[in-house]
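Hi U.,

Before I forget, here's the chain from the pilot set. I'm dumping it here mostly so it's searchable later in email.
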Amino acid sequence: MDALQGSLRSLFGLDEFRPSQREVVEDVLAGRDVLCVMPTGAGKSLCYQLPAAMRKGLTIVVSPLIALMEDQVQQLRDEGLAAEMLNSSLPMAEQRRIAGELQRGYEGLLYVAPERFYASGFQPILKTLRPTFLAIDEAHCISQWGHDFRPEYARLGEARRLLGDPPAIALTATATDDVRQDIIRVLGLRGPSIFVTGFDRPNLLYESRQVPNGREKESQLLALLRQEPGSGIVYCATRKTVDAVAGTLAAALPGRPIIPYHAGLDAAERTANQERFMDAPDAVAVATNAFGMGINKPDLRLVVHYNIPGTLEAYYQEAGRAGRDGLPARCTLLFSYQDRYTHEFFITKMAEGNPDADPADMEARQQHAMRNLDLVIQYARTHRCRRQMILEYFGEAREVTECQCDFCRRGQDISPKALAHAIPLPVEVVTLVRQILSAIARLHGKFGIGVVAEVLAGSQSERTMRWGFDRLTVFGLLRAYSSKRIVSMLHRMMEAGLARQRDLVGVKFRPVMELTAIGIAVMKAEQPVPATLIDLLPRRSDRTNDGDNRPAKGNGASGATIVRQADKEEPLSPEQSRRFERLRTARMQLATDRQIPPYCICHDSTLRSIARLAPAQLQDLQFVKGMGPRKIGQYGQTLLDAMREDEPAEQTP
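Structure:
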């Protein structure tokens, strides 16, 4: 294990990097400027958190939402890492404490909103800070060509210079080439490394329905919601439309939570509505684009655009909030040509909202907005693959296969029953998830993540003995794993929407852990385990800290701790090496199609064994270590076909 992977494991309890994470971290540690475009759930945060934890000094993280800051700071503290946030939600005494820490040379991560750099009380401190590096999350907000432009973000280049021009990493999930160039220019990134890991979401079923009028839209929307009993979001272009549609749905769907959300509601009502939406498994949010950033509800099965958005980038971002658990979800656009006029009205009014803007610059912006609107209409009316069109918009040169958009699946059944199949997970992973959820449930939402980890690890601490946790049936279920590994697993439960942390009344940053409604259903086997947890089981044995070099054993995960032995076999022959490389290429394609890490398909050692054995038929794969019946059924034929490619044909005698 190299030093970087060792740090990943010791600091965050993780065995392997996700695609491109290692390369990004290496460049950040080397002091390079980096622009990182990764889809939601790909692990952007680790790209700056790991370097910050490995280095001495201050890391400043710019984040747009207080709720996002709180979640990340709490997770870092759970991992035993130094993290603070400075924002308007904190009492003045707490803000003064953090300011004092900064003046005394605080080392760790500091989360701030972009507005903080220009707060009068922060300006004197700002000029004294010399961070090791600067991380900007949701960096698409910088660009005037982006779908979520925020003027405060556009001044971050100036803030960077005030901080001594430290190395910077900018991160976002959506950015076209124009937006990427804008980010580089505004921040003054110097010859940055640019990582774009892809925009494809194969589990999303894109569709567009052309409807002639408002009455038909209501009818289509009601039919979609009656067909899909799970959670959904309905996006509308204006506050007035939100209120009207929410009223119609509430009257037509009695008993189902219909939750309006727009900027016209006061802050307390917006917060309460968002919490209701997150808590109810069948809730429907009817919202403007003010709703969504920071929403992590993995089981969203349906996103409907009641009106077209202004850009394809906005559509991708909003539709992409569906299906974050990796299971199929529908993204339906209800297209009426009259919606165009609403956007054209807003575009013509752009100059009124910016009276001091240069006329030539304003005209360029309006023309750009009109071109973006035309692209959305082309998408809505296209007679070709919608997934392919989205990838082309973001500049990704990749041929879409096995698409389930409405054009590609013509005539196929996409009812909820037909979509209910889950990506099959190994039984060991399903067992492990339910064991973890059971432990959280047994503590009844009264204890924090550290206590849950101690219980699962079977810790003989004074605390567990005093509370009698050693008498719980879940005590020691995961004693095969270190506490750091268990804490990491618990955070994965929260990322998947199965559990959450909440502060006790009047107490900050001492949260307790509890199951969500989805987590309870998964624990009881009423819902499948989210496919995003397929790599939850560690790739290597996670040994206990007692110095014993033998693989740890215990009653966790059905005793299915994975151990990767050193490869002591003879080197591959030239012919076997060619087979091995073809197998690796096929494995990468399988992993890309399923949006899972390649090692979840099979390990290199398994591919080497196949290359040596050169099996002629599927049943021969049963003799290869690592190829059980399920994997043979899922991947066997693809691997056999890849191995045989370019081999000389048999000569007829």
